[in-house]
Each structure stands twice: as structure tokens, then as C-alpha cells.
Amino acid sequence: MTEAVRRLAAFRELVLIMIIVVSGIVMSQLSEFFFTEGNLRSVVIGMVPGAIIAIGMAVLLASGGFDLSVAAVMALCGTICAYLLSEGAPIPLAIVGALLLGALVGSGNGVLVTFLRVNPLVATLGTLLVARGLALVITEGYNISNLPPSFVQLGQEGPLDLPWMVWIMLGLVLLADLALRHTRFLRQVYYMGGNERAARLSGIRVDALRVFTYVFSGTLAGLAGVLLAARLNTAVPTAGQNLELTVIAAAVLGGASLTGGEGTVLGAALGIAFLALLSNALTLLHVSIFWQIVTTGIVLIAAVSLDMLLRRRQA
Amino acid sequence: MSKRPPELAVEGLTKVFPGTRALDDLSMSVEPGEVHAVLGENGAGKTTLLMILSGVYAPDSGRVLVRGEEVSFARAQDAQAAGIGTVFQEFSLVGRLTVAENVFASHLPTRWLGVLDRRRMAREARELLRTLGSELRPDRSVASLDVGERQLVEIAKALSLRASVLLLDEPTSALSAEEAATLFEVLRRLREQGIAIVFVSHRLAEVFEIADRITVLRDGRLVDTRRRDEITPDDAVRLMVGRELSVLYPGRTEETGPARLEVRGLRSGPVGPVDLVVHAGEIVGVAGLRGSGRSRLVRAIVGAERRDAGEILVDGSAVRIDRPWQAVGRGIAFVPAGRMEEALFPRMSLARNLVSTCLGLVTRLGIVRAAAERRLAERLVRRLGVRARDVEQLVQTLSGGNQQKAVLAKWLALEPRVLVVDEPTQGIDVGAKAEIHAILRELAEGGLAVLMISSELPELLGMCDRVLVMANGRVRGALRAEEATEEQVLALAAGTAGEEAA
Predict the structure, then answer these.
(1) Chain A: which residues have CB within 8 Å of chain B?
(2) Other Cβ atoms closer than 10 A to A87
């Protein structure tokens, strides 16, 4: 019996899926609105930016890295994209520009952490402030609205009545999950996170790989910004306050560890799904938004504590 | 012999962990003024014994007696109160605190209101260190001490509660030969003061140098206790292993091939300039005291330390090595000194560890193929005789000897041309040592050039074809290992002998 429990706990994604299904069933009993197409659709769309950022965070955490700047980069890139569009730039150019900016901020983080040996927490806290500040400087604090209709489509229309951004998220999560599990290139990320010195001496190009993980995370944050702007038909410079913390919490729920070497993309994405569902459930049950924050914190602490207990028994 | 009871005795001590009997009905005793060595392979029960005696574990059955009176320890402090002081293998000092604060960490002397009595602490620490024959200043910070001095502070700390029994777990594993000699002076001094000393070590040579009696454990059981003059090192090995150990050191090579690794004018920080050549089929040792630059030298060769000047040639052509991956690409494999710190991925499976250097061999179109990974890992495990449940076992749960074999194994699939090993047998038992030695020689016979660092002179002289001796960052001499003596090496290492060539 205990052996079975341990095996199950080891397969974190399955546990999360079960929890999500069970809480879905419970919720559909508690609220008649929960299991409606409109509600589920809005939950799925709402989790897109977080899930896309979580892909990069999962890779970063597996490598032993950390990025606090993602939500601010998302806001900055969404703003830049909207700004370029409002200045009449073609849509592909505006999107590529925003992604490149995300990559640029990411490479800044990567260089700070890898070559200047700044602690990742401090380095990315710095870029968080810079990115958030720049977004406000560019817009003078205002939102940029009235984006071109064919751009806005990305966030509002698509096959099966789900917007393109949802399909982009699903595709990226699936691809990145398989890549992190099975490709030679990303396997090296686990070695780096498992023991950086041993990885270096084993012939892995640790420095280049570390910069890559930050560039990857920054680019995905840029993409999340673009999609969010499309969804809202507006770029909001203050968008995604505290989203970075939600994403890190989700990745940890999904099996990542802040000491590196562990975690999967699928786990992090399921973590985001679970937190989105939890927040939706609390809203439907008329729990105030303030209590929702408290609940998220408690869930995170409970999940990680339980995990530590199980691991200690295993060892 | 007086009728006085032994200072420390255990009777019928048994401790069972899931799956193993770590100690099985063990009885032994230690007299006052005796150094009693405990020998045994990894897993023989030495550590469990120390853990029980120091109050960390409680025995499942059996008794511990101090001066004939039964004691039982609920906590480590109880063992200290009973007069048993322990120095564990890992240092337990706090670097930012002073020597005196570390020595009295568990019972700081205070005046009223709990204010620290620094003067008394310093005075008592100085007295304690003097009984060890040391003039170390009590107000120095531990961070500024070298390893030998730290070991001394550890001993002072262990004795600070008026201990009459001192337990030492592998006390020389981090010390140079010179520092170990100083430590033995201290132990002799304590022996004269009537302290009973339990000395656990893998290094036979030092056990035979310092011990009055030797107890050999195997699989948790007592094999025998003998006076030092009633047992030879060979007997001890036989008793530990429980079978004839063919040879600790394999034979040497008759002839060597062309130069495989050549280093010219290498400088790295305080090290250099150094020239050296290792030929195919040859094992070249690097000897030197701690701080002689031997580790820095080999690390600069493999790109793990900055190289300020000099050329590296592999098979006659100059290669650029500024980073470890460049060395790996040129067929230079490096086994660093710290297995867990620098060579293994502790929380990963054996298979994942083994393919960490050679992912390319199990990858097609960028995808790591799980079946190929497993097959390669199993092949490597068989080839080096790594004992593990299966290749999915977590590497941190393997024994030290098997971990070390895994570190060697992970390089073999790459078929390297040069193998650089730093302390390849540190902290592993004698059986595993012999196996590692045989593997190294076999690899050399297959045409590899092996460059090897070891703190154990007998190992260097027994294993190598040539030994380079370093002091102050330079190579002071090269000796043919077969003819060299430990005295010759030490004289070169200490800088008291001139240059010699071989």
C-alpha cells in the first residue's frame, strides 16, 4: 500500500491531474455555473499567459536557475508590441520585435547570472524593476488600445471556438515537455541543475546553456505579453502583477525544486491549471479575491510540505 | 596488567537497519592509554559503532560500559557527559567564529546573566591546546586555519568536556602526509596522558604506525582483535576482505608507446612553469604536499582552472583547452577528487550518471533513446563491475567504492586517450581500491596515458611507472616509481633535496 502511494507520488503529473479532476467534480456539485462551457472556456483562456511563462520557468528551475522578471517582461513586451502596431508596423514585425525584446532582457539576465555571478534572485529582481519601469515610461502609465483586428484575432478567435492563443499554449506545452524529457540538448539542463560543477567537468558547456535558459524564459515571457495584448485588445503596462510568483508556485506544485535538477514542463503547466481552477472555484463560491491569495499560499505550502515528507520517508 | 576495568567496552552490541545487520553481537574494549584501531571495508560496521558510542544511534541490544559501568545515551550530549569525545570525518567547526568559541561551542563559559566569559574561555582553550602540544592562538578565526590546524581544534573540542575516550573517524582523510604526522604526535601525547583512543581508518600504513591493538570488523561482526606486533598488514587485509586479495597493486608496464599527453611551460596562478609528458600505456603519478599545486596543475590541464601560459599537446598536436568541454572533445577524461561534489549527480540514477559524458552516443536526431541509454549503462556497469541493484538505482545510495567505479565508468564509453585522476581511491575500502587499481592499469595497457594524483605515497609508488614530485608549484624531481622510496619522495616534496631526473 505505502509502496503504491510512493510510486504515485513519484509520478507528480498524474497526481495533479487526479486532483484537478476531483476538484472539478466537487465544484460541479457546489456551483451550477462551474461546468458550463463559458466558465471552463474563460478558465482555459485566463491561464494562457501563466502557462506559457511556466514553460520557461520549468526549464530554468530544472537548470538550478530562477527568474523573477518574467511578468514584468511580459508587460513590457506586450506594450512594445502594441506601441509598434499603433505606429503602423506590420503585425509580424511587431510580434517579432516583442519576442526579440524578451530574448534581449533574458540574455541580460543570463549574462548577469552566468558571467558576473550575480545571484539570480537579485539579478532578475533588478530586471523586473527595469522592465516594469520601462513599460510605464513608454506608455506614460496609460494603456494602449485599439489594436488591428487581425492581431486581436490571435486572442479571440480560433478553431473549436477557442482562440488561437489557447492552441499556441497547448502546442508549446506539449512540444517543450517532450523536448525537456527527450532531447539531448535539454537533458543537459537537468545535469546542470543536478550538479553544476560535475556537469562542467563532464564536458557540458554550462555557461552557454545557462544563458540559453534565461533567453528562452525571456522570449516566452515576451510571447505571453503579445498574446495577452491580443486577448485584451489592449496593452496594459501594469499587467501580471505577482504573476511571476504564481508561476514559480505552479512549477513547484508540478514537481520542480528551487535547488534544481527536477521538474517538468507538463507539471508546471498543470500547476498553473490547478491554481487557475482554484481561483475560479473560489470566485464562484463568492470568496473574496483577498482570501483567494491566502488560499493559494496555503495550498502551495501544504503541497510542498507534503512532498518533503514523502521524500524523506523514501530516502 | 592491572585489574582496572577497561576505559570503554562494548558487549554484544547489535544494530539492525532495514535490510542489513550493521552490527552483530560485537564485543571489544579499549584500555586507558591505548590507541585501538578499527579496520574494515565500507559497510563493515565501523561507522555504526562510532555512531552508537557517540550517542547518535541507540543499539538494538548489547551494552556500552565506561570504566566498568553501563551507560546509555539518549542524545549525543549524554556521550560527551560520560567522557566520550568524537571527531567525525566531516568537520563540524564554524568558520567565522574563533578557535576558543568553537572549542567550547556546546558549553560556553558564562558570567552572570549569561554574558560570555571570553577571558576564561581563551585561557582554557589555550591550556587545552597546549596539552595537545599546540601554540595555536585561541582568538584566531577558524576560517584562517589550515586543515591540519582545524583537525587539532576538532580534537580540542572533543576533549573539552574532560573526555577520557576519544573517537576518531578517518581523521587523516583530509590531511597531507605532513599534517598526518603532526596529528600522530598529538595522539601519542594523548596516549601518554592516559586517554583511550579509538581510531578508524582505511589507511593501513598509518594504522600500523599508531595503533597498539587492531580490531577487524567484517559484515558487522568482530573478526579478530590483535596486538599490533601479532598481525601484518597483509593479514589485516585478508581479515577485512575475508578472502585472498590477489594484489593491491597490479604489475607495471614493460614498454610505453608514443607521447600521448605533453605539457610545455604550463602556468596557472602560483603553479608553473611545468613541463611533463605521459606516454601511451604509462601511469605517471604526481606527488606533493597539500598546497604544492598538484591539484591545480592537473585541473589546469583539463581546463577546470585558468591557464595563464603554456601549451598542451595530445598525440603530438597542440590543442586549445580553456574549458573542460574542450578537453573532453580532445579525448581527455578527468576524474576529480570530490566524487559527490564534482563528478556525480547524486539525485540521479546510475544510468543517467553514466551517460552524462557521452549523451551523443545514445542520441539520434537530437533525441536521447531510452533503450540505448540503458544498454550503454548496463554495459559500462558490467565492464567495471559496479555493484548496484540495477542501473536505475540512485547513485547516492551506492557505496563509496562503487560510486568511484561509476565515475571511471562514465568516461569509458568515450574511449578517451588521456585519463587524469585526482585521488581515485580516497575514502574507499581496500577491496574496491584493488579493483580501481586493476582498472587503471588495464586502461593504460589498452593504450591510455594516465596521470594520477594521490596523497597516499604507497599507492603512488605501487601503481605508477614514474612519479613527479611537486613543491611550491614546480616539479622538483621525477623518480622511477619501482626504485623510489617514500623518503626520497618526501625529501623532494619538502624541498630538502635537489633536482633529480629519471
Answers:
(1) 182-185, 187-188, 190-191, 194-195, 197-205, 261-262
(2) 8
User: CA B227, CA B205: separation in Å to the nearest integer?
Assistant: 15
B306 at interface of A, judged by CB pairs closer than 8 A: no
> Distance (Å) from the C-alpha of residue A262 to the closest C-alpha of chain B?
9
Residues 6+ apart with CB under 8 A from B389: none
CA B383/CA B402 separation, integer angstroms: 13
B120/B498 Cα distance (integer angstroms): 49
Q: Which of A115-119, B148-152, B211-215 has the lowest mean pLDDT?
A: B148-152
Question: Concatenated DSSP letters for A166-198?
Answer: HHHHHHHHHHHHHHHHHBHHHHHHHHHHH-HHH
ipTM of the complex: 0.84
What digits encode the pLDDT tens for the residues B14-62? 988 766 678 889 999 999 999 999 988 776 888 889 889 988 888 889 9
- CB spacing of B357 vs A203 below 8 angstroms: yes
Distance CA B334, CA B423 (A): 11
- CB contact set of B10 (below 8 Å; sequence gap of 6+): B26, B27, B28, B29, B49, B52, B53, B62, B63, B64, B65
Q: Kindly state whether residue A13 falls inside one of the protein's structural domains.
A: no
Q: How distant is the Cα of A244 from the closest Cα of chain B, in angstroms?
A: 27
Total of domains in chain A: 1
Calculate how close chain A gets to B54, using CA atoms only, in Å.
23
Question: Is A7 inside any structural domain?
Answer: no
**Alpha-helical segments (H) within chain A:** 2-10, 12-30, 37-46, 48-62, 70-86, 91-114, 120-139, 149-156, 164-182, 184-194, 196-201, 206-232, 243-253, 265-284, 289-314
With respect to residue A11, please indicate whether it lies within any of the assigned structural domains: no
CA distance B382 to B135: 53
Q: Does B153 touch chain A (CB under 8 A)?
A: no
**Is A310 buried (19+), middle (13-18) or exposed (0-12) by CB count in 10 A?**
middle
Q: Which domain holds residue A122?
A: 40-304
User: Could B356 and A199 be called an inter-chain contact, meaning their C-beta atoms sit closer than 8 Å?
Assistant: yes
Integer Cα distance of B38 and B220 in angstroms: 12
Domain assignment present for A230: yes
Task: Choose the closest CB to B345 out of A182, A194, A200.
Answer: A194
Least CA distance to A179: which residue of chain B? B367
Q: Which residue in chain A has the smallest CA separation from B325? A: A203
Distance from the Cα of B3 to chain A's closest Cα (Å) equals 47
Kindly report the average pLDDT of chain B as a whole number: 86
pLDDT value at residue A315: 47
A201/B334 CB distance under 8 A: yes
B104: closest CA of chain A, how far (Å)? 32
Query: Would you tell me how many other CB atoms lie within 10 Å of the CB of residue A191?
Result: 27
Q: What is the CATH number of the domain that holds A296?
A: 1.10.3470.10
Read off the pLDDT of each residue in B94-115 and give the average, rounded to a whole number.
Answer: 81
Spell out the domains of chain B, with CATH numbers in brackets. Answer: 8-241 (3.40.50.300), 246-331+416-502 (3.40.50.300), 347-409 (no CATH)
User: What CA–CA distance (Å, rounded) separates B127 from B447?
Assistant: 58
Q: Which residues of A are less than 8 Å from B343 in CB distance?
A: 198, 201
Partner residue opposite B344 with nearest CB, options A187, A198, A203: A198
